[in-house]
Every structure is written in C-alpha cells, then in structure tokens.
Amino acid sequence: MATDMAEATTAAVLEKKDNGVMPEEKKLHVIFVLGGPGSGKGTQCEKIVENFGFTHLSAGDLLRAEIKSGSENGTMIENMIKEGKIVPSEVTVKLLQKAMQESENDKFLIDGFPRNEENRAAFENVTGIQPEFILFFNCPEEEMLKRLLNRNQGRVDDNVETITKRFRVFSESSLPVVNYYDSKGKVRKIDAVKSKEDVFENIKLLFAPFIQEKEEVEVGSLN
C-alpha cells in the first residue's frame, strides 16, 4: 500500500513537469564526469569550469537543494530517502533537465552521473540528449584509498570498510556505464594517478575545442 502511494506520488510529481525533450533552439553540450571515490574529478571539474566556461551540475546537490526548498517534489524525495528507497532515475534526471533549461549556459559538466545503467537510459529517454563524451578518471583503488584516508575533510565515511563498499558500488554500477559509452567511442580516459597539474594538462587537450567558443561568448558580451 505504502509502495503504491509512493509510486503514485512520484508519477503525479513527474506529470506536472515538462515531459518534452530539450528545446531544439538550445543546443546543449553535455559531458558526463565519472571516476571512483578519490579519483580527483571534483578538483578537475572546478578547473574546467574556470577555464572553459562550463556549468558544473551534481545530481546529489540538486536533490539536496530540492529537499531544502520544501516543494512537493522535495518532500517526496526526502520521504523516499528516509524510508531507505532509491529515488527514481526520472526524478533525478528531471532536476538536471530543469537546471539546464533555466541556465543561460549551454555547456554542462554532469558530475558523478549516470551512476548506473538505469540513470543513463532515463537521461537519454527524458532529455533526448547524447553526451559529447564521458570524461573518465581512471585511478587504481590502492591510490584512491590512500588519497581518501589522507585527505582532511572530516568525512565520517572515510574509513577503510566504508570506502571499500563505495569502490564496489562504483565497480558494479558505474563501470558498466563507462563500458557502454566506450563501445560507442565516447569515453575519454584520463590517467588520474598523475599530479593535479599533469592531469589538467591532459584535460586541456580534450577541451581545446571549447576555448574559442568561450572567447566568442565573452567578446560578444562586451559589444
């Protein structure tokens, strides 16, 4: 009964949202950023935003913001999380879609998403968008573990047992997404073992086509 009500609420909330694909006049450039915990993708996302004019979107941040807003959608999300249920992929995707539609930008880094094949399918079905490419931070678990244990961010989940579980979830759920896009030639693999500076030098080569576009926008805004 409770499950039926939750599904009905989810359907009702989704029905109120725009079910169409992105407007054709706004061509969006979407790049998925994936990598295991401690691979350094968060640091590099900041550099990409600063240097190439992308907007950084995090599915987790959007979910938390929606809960904080007190909206009907936010209440539904909060209740599902409290009950230990997984928030439907369509709900998360529609938050991402809304953020992109409301942004004045047309270039987006979507960080830590899709987390699994269900996320991927929902994103493509709801938005009609194919990512430009997937930026994959390839880093051995031993190195990621060392980084997570050494960093000083006060995270309570940074202990060996919990970190190992996070590695397993990434391997079982997210790597199949990477493999899917790799089969389509869309994965750009970064050696994340290197220093932050060297990693970004490699990233700059991938994002070079976006430099001219960023400069053109900035010049246009001055006219």
TrEMBL record:
<feature type="binding site">
    <location>
        <begin position="85"/>
        <end position="87"/>
    </location>
    <ligand>
        <name>a ribonucleoside 5'-phosphate</name>
    </ligand>
</feature>
<keyword id="KW-0067">ATP-binding</keyword>
<dbReference type="GO" id="GO:0006207">
    <property type="term" value="P:'de novo' pyrimidine nucleobase biosynthetic process"/>
</dbReference>
<keyword id="KW-0547">Nucleotide-binding</keyword>
<dbReference type="GO" id="GO:0033862">
    <property type="term" value="F:UMP kinase activity"/>
</dbReference>
<dbReference type="InterPro" id="IPR000850">
    <property type="entry name" value="Adenylat/UMP-CMP_kin"/>
</dbReference>
<keyword id="KW-0665">Pyrimidine biosynthesis</keyword>
<comment type="similarity">
    <text>Belongs to the adenylate kinase family. UMP-CMP kinase subfamily.</text>
</comment>
<feature type="binding site">
    <location>
        <position position="64"/>
    </location>
    <ligand>
        <name>a ribonucleoside 5'-phosphate</name>
    </ligand>
</feature>
<comment type="subunit">
    <text>Monomer.</text>
</comment>
<dbReference type="GO" id="GO:0005524">
    <property type="term" value="F:ATP binding"/>
</dbReference>
<dbReference type="GO" id="GO:0005634">
    <property type="term" value="C:nucleus"/>
</dbReference>
<dbReference type="Pfam" id="PF00406">
    <property type="entry name" value="ADK"/>
</dbReference>
<keyword id="KW-0418">Kinase</keyword>
<feature type="binding site">
    <location>
        <position position="166"/>
    </location>
    <ligand>
        <name>a ribonucleoside 5'-phosphate</name>
    </ligand>
</feature>
<feature type="binding site">
    <location>
        <begin position="112"/>
        <end position="115"/>
    </location>
    <ligand>
        <name>a ribonucleoside 5'-phosphate</name>
    </ligand>
</feature>
<dbReference type="InterPro" id="IPR027417">
    <property type="entry name" value="P-loop_NTPase"/>
</dbReference>
<feature type="binding site">
    <location>
        <position position="151"/>
    </location>
    <ligand>
        <name>ATP</name>
    </ligand>
</feature>
<feature type="binding site">
    <location>
        <position position="119"/>
    </location>
    <ligand>
        <name>CMP</name>
    </ligand>
</feature>
<protein>
    <recommendedName>
        <fullName>UMP-CMP kinase</fullName>
        <ecNumber>2.7.4.14</ecNumber>
    </recommendedName>
</protein>
<keyword id="KW-0963">Cytoplasm</keyword>
<dbReference type="InterPro" id="IPR006266">
    <property type="entry name" value="UMP_CMP_kinase"/>
</dbReference>
<feature type="binding site">
    <location>
        <position position="155"/>
    </location>
    <ligand>
        <name>a ribonucleoside 5'-phosphate</name>
    </ligand>
</feature>
<comment type="function">
    <text>Catalyzes the phosphorylation of pyrimidine nucleoside monophosphates at the expense of ATP. Plays an important role in de novo pyrimidine nucleotide biosynthesis. Has preference for UMP and CMP as phosphate acceptors.</text>
</comment>
<dbReference type="GO" id="GO:0036430">
    <property type="term" value="F:CMP kinase activity"/>
</dbReference>
<dbReference type="InterPro" id="IPR033690">
    <property type="entry name" value="Adenylat_kinase_CS"/>
</dbReference>
<keyword id="KW-0808">Transferase</keyword>
<feature type="binding site">
    <location>
        <begin position="38"/>
        <end position="43"/>
    </location>
    <ligand>
        <name>ATP</name>
    </ligand>
</feature>
<dbReference type="GO" id="GO:0005737">
    <property type="term" value="C:cytoplasm"/>
</dbReference>
<feature type="binding site">
    <location>
        <position position="194"/>
    </location>
    <ligand>
        <name>ATP</name>
    </ligand>
</feature>
<dbReference type="GO" id="GO:0006221">
    <property type="term" value="P:pyrimidine nucleotide biosynthetic process"/>
</dbReference>
<keyword id="KW-0539">Nucleus</keyword>
<dbReference type="GO" id="GO:0036431">
    <property type="term" value="F:dCMP kinase activity"/>
</dbReference>
